[in-house]
Specification:
Blueprint: H1 2-26, H2 28-34, H3 39-59, H4 61-69, E1 72-73, H5 80-96, E2 102-106, E3 113-119, E4 122-128, H6 129-134, H7 137-152, H8 155-185, H9 197-237, H10 239-249, H11 285-294
Parallel strand pairs: 2-4
Antiparallel strand pairs: 1-2, 3-4
């Protein structure tokens, strides 16, 4: 479990750390400091890199999902199951008022599905072979409705915006504190350029620490959007079918073979208890079922 959490945190921090190293190597930080960049300038600088990195990830999300899962897009249905799958997605998409997503199947033993894409009208919905084999059609329809709900709710874009804003805050706060610490270490003397080794070390460490808290916030939003997507699945396929699908998903026991980069987009995710629960991308199945049962 600690390995999974470590991978999740590393994924969220990768873009920030990479951009920071690029800034350091290319001298962008030093260039900005030499020009006396104030707080407003730092915020603009951080926004370009923080938001830019998040939206680059979103832009390539479909390509990454296909590559990492081996998902095969159904361009021409080869059998009755694929025809039903495409038509069900089409029906849900029309009811939800979005463009027809690409429909794909990927080979995995557990029951899972995911949706991703940059816009509501240019998305990908994929299901695992395990889901098709272990669920009946009413349950699969509900799962597809859940994924269409993610697309219709704009969850991918919203998650990207939140991640981008948090990336920006992490970059800004780490550098502001880094300047304060570096000034203290130098006895208050003015330095030429960006600062000393203390500044660089403090910034790197604080980006990891602040990025940890940012990951907790992103995970909270990810869990919250699962409840909304469940409600959408209930609306599109029926509440009983959505509850039945979630009950069937409990057989996964919180296991998933989805790559770390797209686990948050799956209908089923890892489970945890205690402090580790803060990093879960999905709420427990029983809480999701209870929410549906309590809905009016």
């Amino acid at each position: 479990m600690f390995k999974r959490i470590g991978l999740f945190i590393a994924t969220n921090l990768a873009v920030i750390l990479l951009l920071s190293i690029v800034c350091r190597v290319l001298g962008i930080d030093q260039w900005a400091a030499q020009r006396g960049m104030g707080l407003s300038g730092l915020i603009v600088f951080a926004s370009v890199f923080g938001m830019g990195g998040a939206f680059i990830s979103l832009a390539i999300s479909k390509w990454m999902a296909k590559m990492t899962t081996g998902a095969k897009v159904i361009t021409q249905p080869a059998n009755e199951t694929e025809r039903w799958l495409v038509e069900t997605v089409r029906r849900h998409a029309e009811k939800a008022g979005i463009g027809m997503p690409e429909v794909a199947v990927y080979d995995a033993p557990e029951m899972n599905a995911f949706a991703t894409g940059m816009t509501r009208n240019n998305a990908l919905v994929a299901v695992s072979t395990g889901l098709l084999q272990q669920m009946d059609r009413e349950q699969v329809s509900a799962v597809l409705g859940h994924e269409i709900g993610h697309v219709a709710n704009g969850d991918m874009v919203t998650l990207t915006l939140i991640q981008g804003v948090l990336n920006t805050l992490v970059i800004v706060l780490a550098r502001v504190v880094g300047r304060v610490v570096d000034s203290w270490m130098s006895g208050g003397r003015e330095r030429d350029g960006e600062g000393g080794i203390g500044y660089f070390v403090v910034v790197m460490v604080l980006q990891i620490v602040f990025g940890l808290f940012a990951s907790i916030i992103v995970s909270w939003f990810s869990r919250w959007r699962e409840f909304r997507a469940d409600a959408a699945g209930a609306n599109l396929a029926g509440r009983a079918s959505m509850i039945s699908a979630l009950q069937r998903l409990s057989a996964n026991h919180g296991d998933t073979s989805l790559p770390q980069t797209i686990q948050a987009f799956g209908i089923s995710g890892h489970l945890a208890t205690g402090f580790k629960r803060l990093f879960m991308s999905h709420p427990p199945i029983e809480e999701r079922i209870a929410a549906l049962q309590a809905a009016r």
